[in-house]
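__Record contents__

***
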Amino acid sequence: MEIALLLAQQIAQLFLILFCGYLIVRTGLLRAADSKVLSVILVYLVIPCVIIDAFQIQDSPQVRAGLLVSFGAAAAIHVVFLALTAVLRRPLGLDAVERATAIYSNAGALVIPLVQALLGQEYVIYSCAFIIVQLVLLWTHGSTVLRGAGSLSLKSILTNVNLISILVGAVLYLGHIPLPSVLVGAMDSMGNLMGPLGMLLAGMAIAESPLKQLLCTPRYYLTAALRLLIYPLAALALLWVSGAVSFLPDGKSILMTVYLAAITPACTTITSMAQLYGQDVGKSSSLYVLSTLLSIATMPVMLGLFDVVI
């Protein structure tokens, strides 16, 4: 349970930063629309630096084995999420935004700073496995769900800056190409901005949302429960049944990076995609905000269960 308490502390620190983002908009110093600048910095500069830096580790059979396990676990978890959504779609009447929100987590923006704080920089590379699997599915399955019909957007996949960063990092890793220490240091410094920037953006988004409507819409809690409770429990059951923790000496830590990614709140990209494909942007934004607020309570509980069960 100690790891769950550490996670709660880390999330609490991030949420203090979220509150600062909320205040800066509510006091009129900035508008919520001004967050676009921060969003561009986060997506096109900070996250790519973190991803490439994660691959700047010494290659070894242990690292390769860990990557194989983390990729397998991430792919299996997404298969479970997709199957669970297919089963629940009709009984719960889940629309496109609700289905996408339930499946896709905010792994890219939230899990890496948490892994850095809880396990160390050397484990960030394993969390990238989940991000890679999710990015591919998000811009194939996710975009198809939100678009409703039509062909897959191959261009969106191939030009996604996070996927390009992963490919660059993988080439450097597989080619045993170390970057200059000055560049690595600069990327480390940029990586330290990831958590704070992500939570500032969330706080600015919350400041624009009508909290009364957000907190008093029962339907929103259903989707939040799927994203934060039901799907994480399904992922935990899968990891327990598979016995994957026994595959490696540090299997529990490696699987924890994958599980952390699976229990984070709704993916921020869903709101942008909803706007792009003519879906209910207000609903998507509300689900993101509500799940982010509730995750401060659910993530430590889910991680505590992981620590006990796995």
Summary: The chain has a mean pLDDT of 83.
